[in-house]
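Anyone up for a design puzzle?
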């Protein structure tokens, strides 16, 4: 169930919170200038050497945010947009600290109901489930839209995806179209194909190569281990097709999981919305033994 935990992560800090009720109507009545920001996150992963099938997930929301706030920061704060280091940098992410920071009050943020929402990929059409968004504070509430399970069937790789919303009160119907990246492929560690690497010495630098992606995409490598409270992520320019993990990247002992991500963020112009974006996260998981 490790993969499921990653897909559930954007909602990690809502686990013990109660759902909101009539607060949305009260906030909507406030005469405060706002902007609307639609965000779609599509995640798909496959495993190179574990007996877990392909998994996928979609999160979609339209936020109404006070004009005095940067809606992009709010999107990141509530977990609807992944954060990562800049290419050429590595950072440690403490999810417990992130969850704490996310409870800082932000006034009058609504996650809007936009009617029925459908995901279209090729000839496949899949309705998204409307989920009540558990309250982070008294000022953030509403709904998010998600796929109903982690089946990868609605999210084939390398396709044009469309999100179609029927619309609701004060939100017109809209359609978002975006092209997905290729999945990470031809990954090597120290010159060996990823699938052949089952063991590495801990605490050494590691050369990594891959089939380059398109300009603007980001290539990430993340290590997750049971003996450390935070994860380490290194970012590279996807077009480079190569990078080097520093010696302090693989310092755990025992079995760790490498998550190799290709990220693509596409801004979209939608009539009736102030801002919209689609974010793809296609990843490859690999189990690895680290020893002295």
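Challenge accepted. My sequence:
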């Amino acid at each position: 169930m490790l993969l499921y935990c990653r897909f559930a992560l954007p909602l990690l800090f809502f686990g013990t919170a109660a759902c909101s009720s009539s607060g949305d109507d009260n906030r909507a009545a406030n005469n405060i200038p706002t902007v609307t920001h639609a965000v779609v996150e599509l995640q798909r992963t496959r495993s190179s050497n574990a007996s877990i099938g392909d998994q996928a997930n979609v999160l979609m929301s339209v936020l109404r945010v006070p004009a005095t706030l940067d809606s992009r920061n709010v999107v990141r704060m509530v977990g609807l947009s992944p954060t990562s280091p800049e290419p050429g940098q590595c950072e440690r992410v403490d999810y417990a600290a992130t969850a704490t920071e996310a409870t800082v009050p932000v006034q009058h943020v609504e996650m809007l109901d936009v009617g029925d929402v459908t995901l279209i990929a090729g000839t496949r059409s899949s309705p998204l489930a409307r989920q009540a968004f558990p309250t982070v504070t008294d000022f953030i509430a509403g709904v998010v839209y998600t796929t109903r399970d982690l089946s990868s069937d609605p999210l084939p790789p390398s396709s044009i995806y469309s999100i179609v919303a029927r619309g609701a009160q004060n939100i017109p119907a809209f359609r978002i179209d975006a092209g997905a990246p290729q999945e990470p492929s031809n990954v090597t560690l120290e010159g060996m194909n990823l699938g052949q690497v089952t063991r590495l010495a801990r605490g050494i630098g590691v050369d990594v190569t891959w089939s380059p992606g398109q300009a603007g995409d980001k290539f990430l490598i993340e290590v997750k281990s049971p003996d450390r409270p935070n994860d380490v992520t290194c970012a590279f320019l996807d077009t480079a097709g190569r990078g080097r993990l520093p010696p302090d990247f693989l310092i755990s002992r025992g079995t760790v999981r490498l998550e190799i991500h290709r990220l693509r963020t596409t801004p979209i112009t939608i009539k009736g919305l102030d801002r919209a974006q689609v974010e793809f996260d296609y990843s490859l998981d690999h189990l690895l033994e680290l020893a002295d």
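A detail worth pointing out: The radius of gyration is 20 Å.
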